[in-house]
Amino acid sequence: MPRMSRRTLLRSMAVGGAAVSVPGLLTACSSDPGDSDVSNAGKKLAPWPAHRPATGPEPDLAPTEDGVQAGYTSYPSDLVKSVTRTPGDGSTIRVMTVSFGTPPKPASQNHFWAAVEKALGVKIEYTIISQADYQKKMATVMAGDADALPDIINMFAGFTLPREAQFVQRRAQDLTPYLSGDAIADYPNLAGIPTHAWRDMGRIGGRIYGIPLERPLPGSTLWINQDMFADAGMTEGWTAEDFTSVARRGTRGRTYMLGAANGSLFGNAYHSAAHNAPQRWAVTKDGTFLPAAADERYKASIAFQTQLRRNGSYHPDATSISQIDLTTLYYNGTVGSMQDGFGAYLPKYRESKGKMSPAAALPYSVGGEPGGTVAARRSFGYTVLKQARKERIELLLRILDYLAAPFGSEEWELVHYGVEGVHFTRGEDGSPEPTELGEVENNTNLPLKYLAEGPQVLFVPGMPDAVRALHTWQRKVVPHAIRDASFGLQSATNNAQGATLKTFLDDTITGIIAGRLPLTEWDAAVKKWRSRGGDRMAEEYAEDYAANA
């Protein structure tokens, strides 16, 4: 059984993209009636930044237009240089991001921190906020003095921050003149961020205020212990009935085929997508927005999971266990599966240390219809800048341009692995392998990757077969990905009440699957959700969708 440190498990969550809703968080700026119009309807829309793909090593496995990632079965031998000059001017910049790691050593004792500062040409004062404290800290920052804002702020997508768009519109720098259209050419690595990431980040009031952190198309994924599922009878092309049988057959004693964490709705994202239910919002050809909650396929997925729970296939702590502790149970074989972000593939493969066989599950079919999969928001949060004079904004953008260097570049290697011989050595295939110091001084504990990052690729150091398996899986599921139609759009009601309304529905789903509520409660809950703001959100999203068309 692999021994997992808390730091390692937190890193797994960070890569996977664990999401948290914050229903009780701040109403910053709510007393100012002049900052409430964040809709794009009726506004002149800033053109998206002109995409210019980075030049670099050719992938071993080709990407596709519909969202399959480029795959690299080995590390590039000849790294390119993506930045021609030191971006900074020797000044000090203040930055703030979420963190899933442990607090880093101080800058004066941290070789990784020092190396990045030297490359960037600035001193970095870094406010690093743990995921558990992020919402509380953001409440203070968003409600505080504008002059006290950090220069660069990570707006993490794993939380629902009430009136977030209003805060950004009022306090952050409008980046439209710097990034819209061909203006982004001054920042080649930022220009390498694909348009889909900018679209899913969205505009505010027709303007561009942030820089997105691009993410792959697959979203919430059922990660299985492949050997356990195969031994229980899993085959490709399985049906919902097959899934039920495999889950029952493999559950015995203190081993459960299905694991779930508190807040995951028993892994509902995977099951609702397999039932081809909308993911939060669907849009019709005429632009009408329909909530997933009112779709019969969504209700059917809840009923399906309820039966799985009655069968005893779920771990008994599915409503209370943390994602961190669930990951431990997954690695040690107590549970045969868990829902996590697709981006969790890297720790899943590397940290299982050959003691188990992680794999992304294919969706099962329902009623003869091939199952769908969850399409992620292509922007895992975004970065905003404090309002400043033109020269200062340009400096900050040069810093972010460096951090957004593409895979296969010298800059990417420094930001992700540190200094060769200090933080990493080379494996047989040339891949960076962290040293003992690199396990402590790294991009998890000093999370520069949440300030800016280039397009992500499929790469698992030293594991070419894992890359091939993931690429094959993507080719099968990406064409069936189900996208939340509200991504990148504005709704005043969602900005103000979305977190609370989501929590209401989530609690109802959890209660039904756990057996505390009957399935008959669902329709009444949906009716109440619609009357309390759901129908208003549908109207507002439709209006913004039409404006963005």
Automatic annotation (TrEMBL):
Record-linked SUPFAM superfamilies: Periplasmic binding protein-like II
PROSITE patterns linked to this entry: PROKAR_LIPOPROTEIN, TAT
Region (Disordered): 31-69
UniProt-listed Pfam families: SBP_bac_1
InterPro entries attached to this UniProt entry: SBP, TAT_signal
Keyword vocabulary terms for this entry: Lipoprotein
Identification of the protein by name: Lipoprotein LplA
Gene designation per UniProt: lipO_3
